[in-house]
TrEMBL record:
Superkingdom of the organism of origin: Bacteria
Subcellular localization(s) per the UniProt record: Membrane
Family annotation (InterPro entries): Holin (IPR006479)
Organism of provenance: Anaerovorax odorimutans
Name recorded for this polypeptide: Phage holin
Pfam families membership: Holin_SPP1
Amino acid sequence: MLNDKEILNFEDLDEIEEVDATVGLETGVSGQTIARTIVTFLALLNAVLAITGKTPLDLDENTIYLICTGIASVATTIWSWWKNNSFTRRARTADLVKDGVKEAV
């Protein structure tokens, strides 16, 4: 296993990716991390509103759930729309050719 000093001195991207895979960074950000970040942001926003004399956000569990569900729905819709969704045989064949060209480059 590599220590912190060795990780900071990497020059080769392949070695960095190897370390990322070893540490488990390929899985991405967890849902718990996102939820904690949202809650922290809302708490800070409430504090700023209270300090400035504005009415703080009156959020209950149901409202937070609805907001998070709405954000997740919008995000998944945009992600699904952005991805290349090939339904026809011709489109799937074109995807195979495109992937072959990417591998060759």
